[in-house]
Amino acid sequence: MSCLAQGESFVVERIEIDGIKKIAVGTVLSYLPVNVGESLDVERSPEIIRELYGTGFFDDIELLRRDNVLVIKVVERPSIAEVNFEGNNDIEDESLEQAMEGLGMSKGLIFDQNKLGKLELELQQVYYSLGKYAARIEAKWRKLDDDRVAIDIDISEGISAKISSINIIGNRNFEEDELLDLFQLESSSDGMFPDDEYSSSKLAADLETLKSYYLDRGFIQITVNSQQVTISPDRKDISISINMREGDQFRISKIEVGGEMVVPVEELNQLITFREGEIFSRKEVNKVISAMQKRLGEDAYAFAEVRMVPDVDEANKTVALRLLLVPGNKVRVRYVHFSGNEKTKDNVLRREMRQLEGAMYQVSKVDRSKVRLQRLNYIGSVNVGVEKVANSVDEVDLEIQVTERFSGNLSIGVGFSQVQGITLQLGFAHENIFGTGNKLEFTFNNSDVTKQYALSYQNPYYTPEGVSRGFNLSILETDASENNTSNYLIDQAQFSVDYGIPLSEYNRLRLEIGVVRNDLRTTSGSSQEVYDFVRDTSDKYDDSDPNSEVDGEDYDTIFTSIGVAKDSRNRRTFASSGSLNSIGLEVHGGDLEFYKIRFRHQTAYALSEMFTFSFKGRVGYGDGYGDLEELPIFEKYYAGGVRTVRGYESNSLGPRDSENDPLGGDFQVVSSAEVLFPIEALGSSETFRVGVYFDVGNVFEDIDDYDTAELRQSTGVSAKWFSFVGPIEFSYAFPLNDESDDDIENFQFSLGATF
After folding, report:
1. Residue 135's pLDDT band (boundaries 50, 70, 90)?
2. What is the DSSP string of 688-749?
3. Which CATH number is 265's domain given?
4. Domain extent at residue 230
5. Phi (first) and psi of residue 53, to 5 degrees
6. 594-606 and 489-502 as β-strands: parallel, antiparallel, unpaired?
7. Of all residues in the chain, what percent are helix, strand and coil, respectively (each to 5)?
8. Which residues pair with 732 in a beta bridge?
């Protein structure tokens, strides 16, 4: 074997690579500028060596010849086995590692010492993008066994530079303060808690927001010419200057719909919400485009486009709009694929689908399917993708990705409630037992107020058509005196069977039949109203005997409940659209004859991507029939507390008995208006929201006693969390029209309430 000699030339019959351990032979050969069968002379040696050095794989390269074999002897550079960060508190390791990947300095790759300087500069830019101009980066390397190295990166983050000022230059039609209110970034002088830490990504987003603001108001030629970020000499303050040109405001001169008219133009024209002569708004145009695409999607055009073709008239400051339809092909759904459902069976999700396999694609059915999946208590989020089928122009697959909520738990615990005091709890609940969508629940609670045993089972698809069936068994022992109501003891045992019958996509009928035994007992602290009720309803009381006394009575009743609900909410928890309306009638017969009517309304409206407005209202009325002149004392309605009118002690509003304890009433009216929004730092938007609210309501002895002047009002802030132990709500309320004898409770909370 010899080195290539001056003037020597030969035809390469084979190429051998000597010295490689980590790099594939094929990878090295792919970089060689010479191939087997070519003639090679020494003049090409520098070219070969240069190309191989350029790969960054080798520390040393030598070209040798053995007969007509080209032998390339190399010394590999070590590989990166470890990357260690020290001192990074504000930026996660993963984010810094992503920046290193762009330089080819990730774990497992070949180490190039010459890139350390570039690495320091790249990581420094990551910190600069967050306004940390005082950040210092030092990268070192050290040898490890087996031809490996470790890279140790020492970081001094320093303090974040604060935005001292943001200036907009070139605005003529809108005040600077109005435009700056649109920004995420704020200067140190803005408000009590300004977001004054610089971020290049936030600045880029703010500039896009600025452009959109102008485009939505007719300034179609808006341009941001430059933005200058200046750091103070001490690197503590940042000033931002934005130079822009507004241009002129344009109005719409003409609106025309064209293209391939697969839908009657009259229908499309009805979707146009703007008119000729109005100021151009990109936002409104996009809404119309989206509505037209959705209309085309109803006729199976899943990939329809509606293109806006503007014709700008500079002289008259107008723009003619042509909305061009490009529908593409009609498609049908081949398959529906589910992913992310590790526990839930596919058929459980599939039965919620309104878009069926083999049917023509219809966007409203796809949207409704998504809503139905989101409304399942054991499903968190749902994403639907429409994928074209390879080698087919008229078929698509639906790719539905779900995230599952924690749906089952075994709980043993000790808690505290404002109303019930110390609570001992043992429970098992599963919303999705064995992945079937069936619900099984057992609960034992023991508190100062109640001792409860409850068992229930619910099958939402007892029939394939969606008829549900449930069984409910409960035993409840209550000391009403501890529940902030009239003083008595009552033991209740109940068994019922319920059915839910779908009447339409949104309407459902519910039927329940059951039996109840109520064992009512007076106490030494019972009020005259309690004694009167027991006396009037007891067979043991002797009217002819003035000394006759009754300390309690057992009541056996059979009840039937019927209700109708219309539910169009997009989800049960933290709905952002839709409404719920339900009305129900419950009739009891037997030892006690009475009825109760309930009406409930909920509506939700998305004010923005972050804020949701929610309104809830509830009306309840009940009365006795036959020999009973009013509701049984243990069936009364109450108001006050976290579930009705916040800021007033639980159950405290309305009529009082002779012992000045809340007696409840036959008529209840409560409502609440609330604006909810997430704080992602405290929890996922799917499980945690805070809000501001206004509550109003009360209970009255009878419907004839209703008086709007007696409705109590409160406002305050709330926090709602769907935790692993159940829903939890906190509120701090400010009563607005409380009376001197009202029981005020500003801070309240509940566990397990239905929001």
Report:
1. confident
2. EEEEEEEEEEEEESSGGG--GGG-EEEEEEEEEEEETTEEEEEEEEEESS--TT--B-SEEE
3. 3.10.20.310
4. 162-245
5. -65, -35
6. unpaired
7. 15, 45, 40
8. 717, 747
Q: Do residues 14 and 134 share a domain? A: no
pTM: 0.65
Q: How far apart are CA 238 and CA 565, in angstroms?
A: 57
8 A C-beta contact, residue 382 and residue 401:
yes
Q: Which residue has the higher pLDDT, 702 or 722?
A: 702
With tokens 């290539």, the residue in question is 4
Q: State how many domains the chain has.
A: 6
Written as six digits, the tokens of 281 are 């708004």
Token pair recorded at residue 739: 């009376």
Tell me whether residue 411 is in a domain: no
d(CA 662, CA 743): 11
pLDDT of residue 407: 66
Are 462 and 570 members of one domain? yes
Cα gap 612→588, rounded to integer Å: 39
Q: Encoding tokens for residue 170?
A: 């070139």
Q: Are residues 201 and 127 in the same domain?
A: no
Question: Backbone dihedral region of 421: left (phi > 0), alpha (psi from -120 to 50 degrees) or beta?
Answer: left
d(CA 752, CA 423): 13
Q: Which residue has the tokens 């409704």?
A: 368
Amino acid at 721: W
Q: Are 685 and 678 in contact (CB under 8 A)?
A: yes
> Does residue 411 have a pLDDT over 60?
no
What is the C-alpha R_g of the chain? 37
Q: What are the Cα distances from residue 195, in Å, to 169, 566, 683? A: 22, 43, 20
* Percentage of residues of the chain with pLDDT beyond 70: 92
